[in-house]
Design goal:
CHCH, mainly alpha, repeat, 65% helix, 107 residues, NDUFA8, single chain
Length: 107
Protein backbone atom coordinates (compact mmCIF):
# COMPACT_ATOMS: atom_id res chain seq x y z
CA UNK A 1 0.00 0.00 0.00
CA UNK A 2 1.34 3.40 -0.93
CA UNK A 3 -0.37 5.25 1.92
CA UNK A 4 -0.45 4.63 5.64
CA UNK A 5 -3.36 4.98 8.01
CA UNK A 6 -1.22 5.64 11.09
CA UNK A 7 2.34 6.79 11.74
CA UNK A 8 5.02 4.88 13.66
CA UNK A 9 3.60 6.13 16.97
CA UNK A 10 0.13 4.82 16.08
CA UNK A 11 -1.35 8.26 15.49
CA UNK A 12 -3.75 8.65 12.54
CA UNK A 13 -2.47 10.31 9.37
CA UNK A 14 -5.54 12.14 8.02
CA UNK A 15 -4.84 11.90 4.28
CA UNK A 16 -7.74 12.32 1.88
CA UNK A 17 -8.02 8.56 1.31
CA UNK A 18 -8.09 7.88 5.06
CA UNK A 19 -10.71 10.59 5.66
CA UNK A 20 -12.85 9.53 2.70
CA UNK A 21 -12.75 5.89 3.82
CA UNK A 22 -13.83 6.81 7.35
CA UNK A 23 -16.25 9.61 6.37
CA UNK A 24 -19.44 7.76 7.33
CA UNK A 25 -18.04 6.86 10.75
CA UNK A 26 -16.80 10.40 11.36
CA UNK A 27 -20.15 11.81 10.27
CA UNK A 28 -22.03 9.69 12.81
CA UNK A 29 -19.63 9.86 15.75
CA UNK A 30 -18.57 13.50 15.41
CA UNK A 31 -21.86 15.07 14.41
CA UNK A 32 -22.28 17.16 17.59
CA UNK A 33 -18.74 18.58 17.32
CA UNK A 34 -19.10 19.33 13.62
CA UNK A 35 -22.52 20.96 14.08
CA UNK A 36 -21.15 23.21 16.83
CA UNK A 37 -18.18 24.17 14.67
CA UNK A 38 -20.41 25.01 11.69
CA UNK A 39 -22.78 27.02 13.89
CA UNK A 40 -19.82 28.99 15.19
CA UNK A 41 -18.52 29.65 11.65
CA UNK A 42 -21.96 30.75 10.51
CA UNK A 43 -22.34 33.10 13.46
CA UNK A 44 -18.86 34.61 13.18
CA UNK A 45 -16.68 34.13 10.06
CA UNK A 46 -13.60 35.28 12.01
CA UNK A 47 -11.50 32.07 12.15
CA UNK A 48 -10.09 33.00 15.55
CA UNK A 49 -13.52 32.82 17.17
CA UNK A 50 -14.01 29.15 16.29
CA UNK A 51 -10.58 27.67 16.97
CA UNK A 52 -11.74 25.77 20.05
CA UNK A 53 -14.75 24.28 18.24
CA UNK A 54 -12.48 23.36 15.32
CA UNK A 55 -10.04 21.64 17.67
CA UNK A 56 -12.90 19.65 19.20
CA UNK A 57 -14.08 18.51 15.76
CA UNK A 58 -10.53 17.59 14.73
CA UNK A 59 -9.88 15.74 18.00
CA UNK A 60 -13.09 13.76 17.50
CA UNK A 61 -12.21 12.80 13.90
CA UNK A 62 -8.70 11.72 14.88
CA UNK A 63 -10.14 9.67 17.75
CA UNK A 64 -12.52 7.93 15.35
CA UNK A 65 -9.65 7.15 12.96
CA UNK A 66 -7.53 5.72 15.76
CA UNK A 67 -10.41 3.61 17.07
CA UNK A 68 -11.26 2.28 13.62
CA UNK A 69 -7.65 1.38 12.95
CA UNK A 70 -7.34 -0.46 16.26
CA UNK A 71 -10.57 -2.41 15.72
CA UNK A 72 -10.41 -3.02 11.95
CA UNK A 73 -6.78 -2.68 10.88
CA UNK A 74 -6.66 -5.04 7.89
CA UNK A 75 -9.98 -4.10 6.23
CA UNK A 76 -9.31 -0.41 6.85
CA UNK A 77 -5.85 -0.62 5.30
CA UNK A 78 -7.27 -2.46 2.27
CA UNK A 79 -10.03 0.14 1.82
CA UNK A 80 -7.69 3.10 2.30
CA UNK A 81 -5.17 1.55 -0.09
CA UNK A 82 -7.84 1.05 -2.74
CA UNK A 83 -9.12 4.61 -2.30
CA UNK A 84 -5.57 5.94 -2.59
CA UNK A 85 -4.83 3.87 -5.69
CA UNK A 86 -8.11 4.87 -7.37
CA UNK A 87 -7.94 8.56 -6.37
CA UNK A 88 -10.82 8.32 -3.88
CA UNK A 89 -13.32 6.83 -6.35
CA UNK A 90 -15.81 5.00 -4.13
CA UNK A 91 -17.29 3.03 -7.03
CA UNK A 92 -13.97 1.31 -7.68
CA UNK A 93 -13.57 0.21 -4.04
CA UNK A 94 -17.00 -1.21 -3.14
CA UNK A 95 -15.61 -4.66 -2.28
CA UNK A 96 -13.11 -3.15 0.18
CA UNK A 97 -15.76 -0.78 1.52
CA UNK A 98 -18.14 -3.67 2.24
CA UNK A 99 -15.42 -5.63 4.04
CA UNK A 100 -14.48 -2.58 6.10
CA UNK A 101 -18.09 -1.76 7.02
CA UNK A 102 -18.71 -5.41 7.92
CA UNK A 103 -15.68 -5.45 10.22
CA UNK A 104 -16.48 -2.01 11.67
CA UNK A 105 -20.22 -1.48 11.29
CA UNK A 106 -21.68 2.00 11.38
CA UNK A 107 -23.21 2.67 14.79
Amino acid sequence: MATKVVDAAGEPIPTSSVLMSAAKHIEIKCKPENVEFLKCKKKDPNPEKCLDKGRQATRCALGVLKDLYQRCKDPMEAYVGCMYYHTNEFDLCRKEQQAFEKACPLD
